[in-house]
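Case study 2.
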Amino acid sequence: MKNAFECKRILVENIANSREKLLIRRKQLKNYDLHWHDCFEIELLLRGSAVQVLNGQRYEMQPGDIYLLNPTDFHSIETEGAVVYNIMFSEEMLDEDVLQKILSIDKNIIFRLSQHELHSAEFMISQMLYEFENTAIYSDSVIKNLMECLFILILRKCGLSERESEVGENDSIRKSVLYLHSRFRDNPTLEQVASVAGLNKNYFSGLFHESTGKTYKEYLNSLKLEHAKKLVLTSNIPVTEICFASGFNSLTNFLRVFKEVYNVSPTAMRKNKMKSKYN
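Prediction:
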């Protein structure tokens, strides 16, 4: 079956004034149709209002609202000229522990900051913007450190506690897992991910299984299914579109695997959620 999920993908390097998959700016929002990115994105609403549909869920946004998108999220925006701080960046900007915690969050990362939090976030982003525009010596280091401080604010807001890595202390496997969490919709091959880990394919396959308790294919499918389940439960997106938006290439295969894992079809899962909501 042909991929029915048509959604524009925005590449940060194609945006004016970006450099090495990094862009920091203060801008006036305009309407954006459904799209997704090849990078992470943070936006902090400073003035005005906007309606955002994130992974099929609608949010009314006001000043002080902040959201974080990872490369697997898709969204659209309607506004009449709201002003935001916008940051687009690759995962290389973040410490691996921080990145892994962010990628482990299984809900949309969007919330309203308190006055103190807003003051802190505005200060950090304005400093990052200054360093980005002036490119003084050590500017990259300043931006990276401030970015991690901003992410800690986000982690605290999400109520995410510190915990051990699900894949132990092997740096190569940690790196491959982080890569998969942000790119599973692209269906990277075993060879591609082994290359990211810097390991031989066969050796990587055995080490990955030992570290995660799953084969490479099982782990990749679990990420796609978790994403699909989130969309089923939090949006009205048609099941066919959820299939392709989650990285599956066949609706038949998606429905079979989904039911095998969750013991219910996507449609039935959604109906059960609606029944429980109103009972």
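The chain has two domains: 8-158, 171-278.
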